[in-house]
Amino acid sequence: MSLSTASATHTIREGAFGNGTHLSCRACGAKTELGPFYACMECFGPLEVGYEFPTITREQIEAGPKNIWRYQPLLPVPTDVASFPNTEPGYTRLIDAGNLARELGLRKLWVKDDSGNPTHSFKDRVVASALSATRELGMKVFACPSTGNLANAVAAAAARAGIRSVVFIPKDLERPKIITTAVYGGTLVAVDGNYDDVNKLASEIAGEEDGWAFVNVNVRPYYSEGSKTLAFEIAEQLGWRIPQQVVIPVASGSQLTKIDKGFTELGKLGLVDATDYKIYGAQATGCSPVAQAFRDGHDVVKPVKPDTIAKSLAIGNPADGPYVLDVARRTGGVIEDVSDEEVIEGIQLLARTEGIFTETAGGVTIATLKKLIATGQIDPDAETVIINSGDGLKTLDAVADRVGPKVTIPASYDAFVKAGLQ
Ligand SMILES: *Cc1c(COP(=O)(O)O)cnc(C)c1O
Ligand SMILES: [Zn+2]
């Protein structure tokens, strides 16, 4: 398999990656030029974007558009990125979750509600930065293996950008996620296998086909930088501060590691005081390889076969697993997991207390927060932020048989009184 998949003739324009200056290997530190590369030439480790930042001010950022492009100077995207058609994700609500905090016994809790993105999950952020890289690298097909939300985001962004999309999903995906992908009109391919099988197939195709940009495979270094915008927005919305504790759902682990990278960059740039923070990871017990490795004190993650209702987190062989362990241990956080029953209760708890209907991944995060408090692993007096990464309308089945009308009555006032509804 080749490590590069762009067309050989394309010239990368000046400033194509903003203040990004190179790619560096997260395993061995070897540096390479910016380009269509994703694995280290020395050790096959994953590559990430490195930068040389100029002075960046809060005022400069605050004057930017009300979407992730306000952080353009901190992303591997060109200064004119916002002028290309894209879904304009980001700038989602940071909700003061007082009711949920009281119920859980926390002093201060915020919910970063990323269900407010264009295709209702945090994936629109990473897809937007991957789309920019795909364009700048001259790649022609926008593709991904997906557990659902990424499929939505890739198909929508491709439709808007007017490029071809090919999305690969496990054939047993939730029906709403299939419909909400197919509606955008790209090519949707159901694969007879689980996500890890689909991911393997995508790597194979990426290695063989010129110009295919699998957002989370061969343009992953650019894709994952999009998650930093969650950290940037949280800090900006708190009045340019880093919260003390953050609880984040873990699938491949990209989001969690990049939220950490985002906070670190803000501190280094002097945009916030570089205060300490703890990063916590949330998994479903039916797919909890990272939580298991954390408990066992291992620094490698043993792959598992997923079996959970939290399908958007069901990655049995998470690419960023070891880096998630590293972030949690370095910051003093924990990776925990919760049962599917707890996930469902978590969904209902957030809905009942804050009026936010989250998907199963959000149920995992809420339930994990609850467990961390109950087991004394998180400080109830420290300011805490949790990520709601997706929308409950996409995973209705999780709660469908738990909720419904209290009673059915005839359309008469008498019946209303008789049913005791006054
Ligand atoms: C993809 C996804 C995540 C986590 O993704 P990572 O692969 O860990 O970056 C979390 N929540 C939802 C709803 C997702 O779709
Ligand atoms: Zn390396």
Automatic annotation (TrEMBL):
The keyword Lyase applies. Pfam families: PALP. CDD domains: Thr-synth_1 (cd01563). Keywords: Lyase, Pyridoxal phosphate. Its cofactor is pyridoxal 5'-phosphate. It is an enzyme of class 4 (lyase). Residues 89-390 form the Tryptophan synthase beta chain-like PALP domain. Its EC number is 4.2.3.1. Gene3D superfamilies: 3.40.50.1100. The keyword Lipid metabolism does not apply. Belongs to the threonine synthase family. This is Threonine synthase.
